[in-house]
Amino acid sequence: MTRQRLAIPFLVLTLTLVSSILLRAGGPAEPAATGSKAAAIERGKYLVNFGSCNDCHTPWKLGPKGPEPDMTRALTGHPAEMKVSPSPTLEGSWGIAAANTMTAWTGPWGVSFTANLTPDKETGLGDWTEEMFIQTMRTGRHQGKGRAILPPMPWFSVNALSDEDIKAVFAYLQSLPPVHNRVPAPIDPPEGQ
Question: C-alpha distances in angstroms, 62 versus 53, 69, 96, 142, 158?
Answer without folding.
Answer: 19, 9, 21, 31, 29
